[in-house]
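Hey, can you fold this one?
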Amino acid sequence: MAASTDLPDIGLPTPEEAYSAFRSFVSQFDLIELLSQLTLTCLFAQKDFLGEASDERRWARFIEFTAGYLVSLQRPQKPLQTFDGSRIEEFESLVKRYFDSFMGHFLSAQPETQERKSSDDLLRSAQIYSLWVRGDAYPHQFFTYAQELYGQHDTWFTTHLGFTIADAIGIIHSVDEELNRRVNASADDARKTAPIKAEEYLEEAEARQISRKELETRVAIHLHYGAAEALLRFSLDELIDISGREKNVCEAFLRRMSQPFGYHNPAFPDTFTDSAKAPWDYNTIDERPFLEDGGFYWFFTNPMIASVLFHTFYFDLMADKTYRPTFEKSRGDFVERKVRQYMMRIFPNQMVLGNPNYPNGEEFSDVAVLHDGKILIFQCKAKGLTRDARVGADFSKLRSDMQAAIRNAFDQAVRARTYIRSTDRPALSVGGLTLKIDGEMITDIYLINVTMMPLL
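Sure. Predicted structure:
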């Protein structure tokens, strides 16, 4: 992507102008203080305490981006200003203007030729989708999927990472529960303490014509949100205590899942430097969601942790070339197994066939369902999109990835359908048994490709 210099007059800055303003603003504050205030205010909705946080998903995306940008920097020793609730509206305006500035870029970008229009539209769709959409499933599904997919590799996890996927999930749940407990306890304590603490400022408040109720509200806000940094941090010893895991397991987990300020993945050394690409840059928060500084750890991106947990260990396993074939096979088996499980919730179990073969022994499909004169032919692919394809950075990679994930599988499904239609008595072999089908009774054949992630 390149920033446009000829934007239509729609009241939006260029990405370069908006990014410069955003970076200039956040550079004034302590990075942990800023992230703590944003996370406590926008991702922890407190009932009856300053109202419900609105639009949490949008804020989760803004905080994810901001955290990724800030942890790529060194933490300043002497911040110029204090970041508190009074600055959140200004922050929101700047980060929102930066994200909105790309709409002007998208509107102004025109294909060079008519022949390129379809590819440009597809890339634009991928860019918009990846700009905002986070997570391909519900959080509880990601935790379940992670356990099912990675649990069969516990030996590898323990040997190479020092913990199992069950350990990782348990630690994440423990941290999440502890942070919610702390936040709720702090809010309750602030409410109870505010009337007492307000007595110290009553005379000054009366002189400024501030009511007792408003004064107590201000004191409660100060007590609760003023403790944001301490509320959201924990030490190794605290993690051991709240998770119930052994010290060596917690140490290994934090070693893999945390990062200090200034960390860069070696494969992406120049992230967050280009205003036209920063929202799509590789974000180390997706790799190491815990921030470490001075022996403490912070966790600022709670809503996305389930997705991170499901995806990040893929790269560890794939990097082990000797173990990769075992892992890749398990991924394919995982997708097929989930399809069978879901189909068995809908159709009689005996009508759901796993890995049926042609009479000659070749595979017919990954899963097939025979029901009421209809055949559903499923071809499953564990392969997802590469990063450049997913964020719309390269059309050739997007096309090749889509072909590998869909085209080849679809061709296999078409071959299966052709076979069913080619004879009055098609037969399938399943588990050593031969199933003969009355071709005249087949009214419809549906070809379905299932992938590990939603494709455009």
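The two ends are 19 Å apart (CA to CA). Let me know if you want another pass with a different chain boundary.
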